[in-house]
């Protein structure tokens, strides 16, 4: 399954520095065996926005014109 991020419903939330909504949570990073690997900050509003974004554009292609000479 891989590592998971768990957000406690009991803990409060903080204002996010990016979006400004009070949806920043301290989350636990948990391994498959249940071991807590660490903690991280997760904004649930910003995460929702990321999952809805368009796919990344393809890398810049070479220019259509070739320099003369």
TrEMBL record:
Top-level taxon of the source organism: Bacteria
Region Disordered: start-end pairs: 48-69
Protein name: Uncharacterized protein
Organism: Amycolatopsis eburnea
């Amino acid at each position: 399954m891989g590592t998971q991020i768990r957000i406690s419903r009991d803990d409060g939330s903080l204002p996010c520095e990016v979006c400004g909504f009070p949806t920043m949570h301290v989350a636990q990073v948990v391994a498959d065996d249940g071991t807590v690997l660490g903690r991280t900050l997760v904004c649930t509003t910003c995460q929702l926005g990321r999952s809805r974004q368009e796919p990344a554009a393809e890398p810049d292609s070479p220019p259509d014109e070739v320099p003369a000479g």
